[in-house]
Specification:
alpha+beta; Chorismate lyase; 8 strands; about 25% helix; disordered N terminus; disordered C terminus
Length: about 220
């Protein structure tokens, strides 16, 4: 699959938090530990690919790996400091005219203390209900929860693994497995139950999705 290039040219994409406090601190660089981390990355990819909603996928992930007392994902809205024109590619993907309003919402998707993803979301407000627009404007509710009544599907345009623990890379500290901030990225168009596109998302999943790994390592030892 071609590596995702569009995100590099879209405003705001790539603003990621600092590394997490567990796996980011490093696991021993052994073949067994690299295999375990690779399995976790593959599990994350399967979780994302089998859910139309990234919010629900991350809540499933957070609950499965006991990453928070309440595995609820919230959207921490980020401030866009630069001019924010809608990319022509996004208008084309959403079948929107040159003058049709499109809003851009950039958030960190957070579960407990973990920033699991940074998401850029362009959506057509005219294709949502007034209540949905008010919630998106006035709260930190996750987009997937807000638009769930649309019974939407996800049309994936790109899905890219940005880092693999196997066989290792120059990024790693000597003797340690140290993932970079960006693990997986996907781009998709969301369509309502009638097939109408209403949103395009670019989601970059962080190293903090793997912050449970030392606990998993202990579990495997038994």
């Amino acid at each position: 699959m071609k590596r995702f290039l569009l995100a590099m040219g879209l405003s705001g994409v790539g603003i990621l938090p600092a590394s997490g406090d567990c796996l980011a601190a490093g696991l021993p660089d052994t073949a067994l530990d690299r295999a375990r981390v690779l399995l976790a990355v593959q599990e994350l990819e399967i979780t994302l690919l089998t859910h139309p909603s990234a919010t629900v996928a991350l809540e499933d992930w957070c609950a499965r790996h006991h990453m928070a007392d309440r595995p609820v994902v919230v959207a921490r809205k980020m401030t866009l400091t630069a001019p924010d024109p809608v990319p022509a590619r996004v208008r084309a993907d959403l079948a929107a005219s040159a003058t049709q309003p499109i809003r851009h919402r950039q958030v960190q998707l957070v579960c407990g203390t973990h920033v699991l993803s940074v998401a850029d979301n362009w959506y057509v407000p005219d294709r949502l209900t007034a209540g949905m627009n008010a919630t998106l404007d006035g709260t930190d509710a996750a987009f997937g929860h807000v638009v769930a009544p649309l019974h939407f599907s996800r049309d994936r345009l790109e899905f890219t693994r940005l880092w693999s623990p196997w066989p290792g890379s120059l990024h790693d500290a000597p003797g340690m497995i140290t993932p970079p901030a960006q693990i997986v990225r996907q781009r998709a168009v969301l369509r309502d139950a009638h097939g109408q596109p209403f949103s395009e998302v670019v989601e970059t999943y962080t190293d903090q999705t793997l912050s449970f790994m030392p606990a998993m390592d202990t579990d495997y030892a038994h």
